[in-house]
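Quick log. Single chain, no ligands specified.
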Amino acid sequence: MAIHRNSALEDQIFQLSETPEDFEQVALNVFAYQIANNSLYKTFCELQGVKEVHRVEDIPFLPISFFKSTRVIVDGLSTEVVFKSSGTTGQVRSEHHVAFKEVYERAFRLAYRQLIGEPTNQVIVALLPNYMAQGDSSLVYMVNELIAATQHPASGFYLEELHSLPERIQRLKNEGKEIVLFGVSYALMDLAALGPDLSGVTVIETGGMKGRRKELLKEELHAELCRGLNGPKMSSEYGMTEMLSQAYCNDELLFSSPNWLRIKIREINDPRSYVPTGKTGGVNIIDLANLYSCAFIATDDLGVAHGNQFKILGRFDNSDIRGCNLLVN
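-> predicted structure:
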């Protein structure tokens, strides 16, 4: 039987309120849709002894490694775009087969407006050389669309113009523009070495050092960037190839999510159990925007929940370094 786009369920997802009860119901609706229409996920759930659930806590979470070995997509749907993770030479890159680009665009636009601001009021610049070089990056796709939404000629990707960027930003500041700078961590450190005045600029770091510099704890990285960039508004993006949604952190390094994205912290040695709030464990992601792939993913990340917010602390020791926003010991 042919599977068609489920616009009604999409609207449920992106019109979610903040109440836990509403999230629970829509998450269960998404689970029912995926177990009925995604053979890979259905088989995985059956191997866990699960055919139906009545609570989010009972939903099985697909290990993120499946995105490296398998095409994770609802049966009968074609791939409109494939996003690939960044990685070092020789690594197998994760692939996210996206059935409808429009769903991704709806997700990141709503999340950005909710958590960062209205792009039409901003100038957005980007230092993402590693992602540009490897290609097929969901981050580059998102930032490019946000840049286009600004409709400002100074918005764009800056790859070879690092030394000229401080002067350009200063001119924009003099014009009273709201400026947002997306940057991979090592490129922001290179920029900080120039000693620019980015006070008042929102800096969103992402992607780690990519082997170019020593990895730092996020607290250390933000402290160094604040010193070198003269006290910008520091933020960070938590996103990855396998997700269609993003979370953004505040000054306390606590990540906030759009209403359709939640994390649950699992016991490290018992993946079907969860730790209390404030305790460290493995990060399970519920990204309901992943309607047509898999919305329930067990990541290789370590984190801790603080109410509806969370911190990312690092990665399991046996996990490879991937292109998501983590800074490990």
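Residues 198 and 229 are 5 Å apart (CA to CA).
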